[in-house]
């Protein structure tokens, strides 16, 4: 893909600098890591001047937080699309797993490297705001699972929440292994395990 293809919209108009910077950062942070990716690399890939970056983001840390927020929203979009086709709370739980599998199937530059949020969090120091963003995402995922389970088990709220925690651990463990192995097979296996567990409730 040429620089022109990357930096123009479908109508041929040049896309806003903020969008190009965020997309370039997303590619580089996921492929190469947050610490290894410098501002010069991002601005060169985005095709903008360094001053343009600081006109849109106060610092690299601000850009990292925007990347984390954008990746979270990207996953939510995948989840909502899966949820539209879900028939009932059981399928709603599995839609969470399917959205993770969809994210794993993206055409990443160096292949699938696991959860982009956790990868970034592992590089950030304790107390960094970015880690709080990642934690909030993971908590939201567990809450989504819990919400479906509450509808599936309306008279067993304790079991619903315990099962949600169990499934979130299963999902995160599968993502960790999938990232090491470079594909989403472990996530698909985790989905099958989750489906079997749900059938036993």
Automatic annotation (TrEMBL):
Record-annotated HTH tetR-type domain positions: 15-75
PROSITE patterns reported for this sequence: HTH_TETR_2
Which residue ranges carry the DNA-binding annotation?
Answer: 38-57
Query: What are the protein's GO molecular function terms?
Result: DNA binding
Keywords tagged on the record:
DNA-binding, Transcription, Transcription regulation
What protein is this chain from?
A: TetR family transcriptional regulator
The upper taxonomy is:
Bacteria, Bacillati, Actinomycetota, Actinomycetes, Kitasatosporales
